[in-house]
Amino acid sequence: MQTKDNQCGIVGISLYFPDTVRTYKDIAQMSNIPEDVILNKFGINQVYVPSDDDQPSDMAVWAANDCLQKTGIDAKEIDLVIYFGENYSDYQVFSIAPKVIGEIGAENAWGYDMECKCGSFVVVMDQAKKYLNTEKDINTVMVVAGYRNIDKVNYQDTSTSFLYNLSCAGAAAIIQKGYDKHIVLENQNMANGKFAESVVVPGGGSKTPLNSSNIHDENLQYFRLNDPQGFRDDLGKVTLDNLVKVTELACKKSGIGVEDIDFACPLHMKVSAHRQLLKNLNIPVEKSLYLSDYGHTGQLDGIISLKVAEDKGLIKPGDNIAMIAMGFGYQWNAGIVQW
Questions:
Q1: Burial class (CB in 10 A: 0-12, 13-18, 19+), 120
Q2: Which of 120, 153, 132, 133 is nearest to 50 (CA)?
Q3: How is the beta sheet containing 169-177 ordered, strand by strand?
Q4: Based on the structure, what is the number of domains in the chain?
Q5: What is the pTM assigned to this prediction?
Q6: pLDDT in tens, 96-144
Q7: N or C: which end of the chain has fewer CB within 10 A?
Q8: What is the CATH number of the domain that holds 288?
Q9: In Å, what is the CA distance from 215 to each residue of 97, 197, 204?
């Protein structure tokens, strides 16, 4: 549990979104699924679609520069940059944190890339906090990411329809030692290796390299769900329970109860799952944010939720905010921020 002596807080958040959107009508046409299902069941109003210029590293840099400008923090003050985006990025075998450091002029920083799939924002805040609390020479951390897994969605494959909500964005936040607002409290994470290879993009890795004979095989280039029935049945049995469990434990470690949650920011999921999760946590729907206008930006959902909730006046100083996520692997994550 944190005290005033070791607390750290989020100084500012910036987001970047491409100029082009894909509406629920577009997705319905592409997938041959009725519009009302996409809108009301999948919970998609629109998603953001990247241009050729919207590369993950560039979107991260744009958000990072905006965050520096809005917070008034000099890039030279940054001691550590942690990139928490997806491993699908501009190139294979590519580290983005060093690029961000160079592009924004953070000449006194070092950095690294980390990934915990869609729960990465929960985990990266905890990593930032731990560095700030244990390293005397680290006082300011930037966490940053870009995401465009939307490239890997095949709208003709209905077994992966749960990925039709994928979107595109960049995001950055600055966390400082001793900052007494938007305090990063504790998190909890859990995993189940049974689902480790349940969702994959088969081609392009060391197991199935792309070459001249298979480069046009669409089955290798898009997300594929292995054992769809088992995935839905087995994962469905544990997912909501695990999300409740990590939320309860994150609250306990933060010195609060679930009943003390003032606002919830789950990642984007289908409407029924979102509502059931809130019901299981006894959180009113009006005390949560649903990202129907943003879609699912993977690791970025948590940071987007915080910024949108702030901009809309949905959260106030002192509120206990629960960020709740899960990701391929399969992993479940929850973190608490005291606004």
A1: buried
A2: 153
A3: 110-113, 80-83, 140-147, 169-177, 8-16, 183-191, 331-338, 320-327, 263-266
A4: 2
A5: 0.95
A6: 999 999 999 999 999 999 999 999 999 999 999 999 999 999 999 999 9
A7: N
A8: 3.40.47.10
A9: 30, 22, 9
